[in-house]
């Protein structure tokens, strides 16, 4: 006979710093406050599909009293961000029942939380979501787990690249993640002293980028520049690879080639694609704080009988919103007129032109 409430926890989607900190907080609050049993589900819904679980205790990973989960990157439970979960619904629901779970806490981005929310409705699970993503594009929350550390990682790279760019009079293009949202590029670009920031929400032209580089050199004597570009950045006419065949390079390399072409090869350019470096590393103090607060709040919501909710950070405290409301407004994109965009422009950073919307208005377009 089961004598304790059994709480499941899983991590889903791409990893990011702070996931283990959430797990630590969930286990701590669930065991110390409510005397529940916590089961870690390995590899998200795959663990449910295969009916696998890992018992988690407050000191299960201690090394001479040191708890590594507070500062360990990645996730001890593993994660997946591929596969067709919805075609295996019945088996996943059966796995949940076989594990005798009373409730489930899922840590994920808007995509993962959407899938888990659908599963919870079909299986009548008690489910609470915790938002995590380096893209910071989950709606209705000012902070998500992993974003602050990713910004710090990009800024550290920009700090290093600035000195080598200055030493060799080069333009350094730094390509960052973000999918359709430019939050990571915008925050890190401002904090890292970028000269150009290109994000999906604001169209740009290569002519404007080159004009800005020329201005830096001719008016201010700057012989180097830092360009931060989000992976989903677009030209002023919603540039499509279909116009020039299959892509042979990422957006950073594409922009480098266009700048070389427009400037007649007179600019020395290097491209750095940070890639999964942005997902790794020790979580920052802020991410540890957010992760801990989210983990604690999620357990309390389960204890209060809540379900179908996501914890969120607003006005320096944790609140909760219906997942349906969150998902209907996600992904949350950068407002082209928000304060940070205005701040970037006040610093002399070129960040595109939101008024250019068509080919006729675009002063320049080149093909990769």
UniProtKB/TrEMBL annotation:
Subunit (UniProt)? Homodimer or homotetramer.
- Leader peptide range in chain numbering: none
Catalyzed reactions:
beta-D-fructose 6-phosphate + ATP = beta-D-fructose 1,6-bisphosphate + ADP + H(+)
Instruction: Pinpoint the Phosphofructokinase domain residues.
Output: 6-302
Compartments annotated for it: namely: Cytoplasm
Pathway participation: Carbohydrate degradation; glycolysis; D-glyceraldehyde 3-phosphate and glycerone phosphate from D-glucose: step 3/4
Q: What is its main location?
A: cytoplasm
Q: Which sequence ranges form a coiled-coil region, renumbered to this chain? A: none
* Pfam families assigned: PFK
Q: Which organism is it from?
A: Tolypothrix tenuis PCC 7101
Q: Which PROSITE patterns match?
A: PHOSPHOFRUCTOKINASE
Sequence positions that bind Mg(2+): 110
Task: Name the gene that codes for it.
Answer: pfkA
Q: What biological processes does GO assign it?
A: canonical glycolysis; fructose 1,6-bisphosphate metabolic process; fructose 6-phosphate metabolic process
Q: What cofactor is this protein dependent on?
A: Mg(2+)
- Positions contributing to ATP binding: 14, 109-112
**Which residues are marked as site: Important for substrate specificity?**
111
Q: Which UniProt keywords apply?
A: ATP-binding, Cytoplasm, Glycolysis, Kinase, Magnesium, Metal-binding, Nucleotide-binding, Transferase
Q: What does this protein do?
A: Catalyzes the phosphorylation of D-fructose 6-phosphate to fructose 1,6-bisphosphate by ATP, the first committing step of glycolysis.
Name-wise, this protein is ATP-dependent 6-phosphofructokinase
Q: Which Gene Ontology MF annotations are present?
A: 6-phosphofructokinase activity; AMP binding; ATP binding; diphosphate-fructose-6-phosphate 1-phosphotransferase activity; fructose-6-phosphate binding; identical protein binding; metal ion binding; monosaccharide binding
EC numbers, comma separated = 2.7.1.11
Origin organism lineage: Bacteria, Bacillati, Cyanobacteriota, Cyanophyceae, Nostocales
Q: Which GO terms describe its cellular component?
A: 6-phosphofructokinase complex
Return the similarity comment: Belongs to the phosphofructokinase type A (PFKA) family. Mixed-substrate PFK group III subfamily.
User: By its UniProt entry, which InterPro entries does this protein fall under?
Assistant: ATP_PFK, ATP_PFK_prok-type, Phosphofructokinase_CS, Phosphofructokinase_dom, Phosphofructokinase_III, PKF_sf
The protein's matches in Gene3D superfamilies, at most eight in alphabetical order, are given as: 3.40.50.450, Phosphofructokinase domain
In terms of PANTHER family, this protein maps to: ATP-DEPENDENT 6-PHOSPHOFRUCTOKINASE 3, PHOSPHOFRUCTOKINASE
